[in-house]
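For practice. Any example?
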Amino acid sequence: MKIVILGGDGFIGWPTALHLSARGNDIIIVDNLSRRAIDNELECESLTPIRSMEERISAWKEVTGRQIKFYNIDISLQYEELVEMFELERPDSLVHFAEQRAAPYSMKSSKHKRYTVNNNVNGTNNVLCAILDSGLDIHLVHLGTMGVYGYSSVGLKIPEGYLKIEIPVPKEGDKTSNGHVDEAANALPTGNASESDSSDDETASTHSNDSEYTPKDDNIPMEIYYPPRPGSVYHMTKVLDAQMFEYYNRNNRMRITDLHQGIVWGCSTPETLLDERLINRFDYDGDYGTVLNRLLMQAAIQHPLTVYGSGGQTRAFIHIRDSVRCIEIALSNPPKPADRVLIFNQITETHRVRDLAALINQLTGVPVGAIGNPRNEAAENDLVVENKQFLELGLKPTKLSEGLLYEITELASKFSDRVDVSRIGPCCFWLPAPTKND
């Protein structure tokens, strides 16, 4: 399979490119190296010393004999170059990582909010348009986030993208808000939304992944996108992505898989361990460091563990080795042209942040240092997530274990001289500081 990896220089993009290349796929990386530019902006480099893209690709060929191509394209701005690349390379599939991925960075200022929206939303729309203009049937796999669902306790298991609902049928003679009789009361469709949209194709699949249920009499059963509740500008762009996917899929029968991923922990995969020049990036700072990696790095340098607020935030997690494996599974199981957007919850387990901090404290003896929560979120939440689709397709989850935790602390200890302690704490706040008039 020929696969384009948009954002292939990043934290998940790079190990995914190597994982897929090692399995015999032809890989093309497209990246504008913006994450490296943000390192310069924030004056905080990856804990691990990542090499240039040219050196990375050269090392991969030297170690494995396999070639990875690279195009330096900004997909949010260089539309014609993107279309030309598609027409030249004619890929079978496309993996889209090329978005500004940090919630804190997206909340730093109006400048950062605007950049995140412009980069992420324009980039995704350009990708969708470029696929159409190329005339190719390209399967798009997009890395989304569990954050689109929000983190409020809702009292139900969060489904994989679609929520089954029922709508009461208007009774004949019912009046609308303007006082007129509803003439269409007897003409409302039955069945779920996807069945109505694809009624001209009897083979259309809805990828329903919930248990069967019987609707109440006189109600219309439907499946809708799970109502979004983004918690940052970054998460909001992922919600907008989902709306674009629904439209282009419905209007143009584009084949799209959207992966709602949990927080990634870990750094290394078997491929990145083959040579030091292939090492993956490891972010530990308050803007880009994911919570478990950040806490483990702090333990490695004996820095108090920075738990925000009560630590009662429950989050979904996945190890980076499982993340790249999920991408492979999604590519190997594409939707048909008549299918609606296929959505997976890409997670393997959930944990409360304070429980993770307590575990690390138990293993390392490093104390927990609670600080004020910079985010505008519930102090405590429950999170129960459906994730059976990947499990049914063969994913064998890598669960949290002492061995893997020590692996990360050892990596952090090795490069501890690269830590800038001033960058560990939160760098921005969701709500502005109160003024004298407040």
About this structure: Residues 32 and 72 are 5 Å apart (CA to CA).
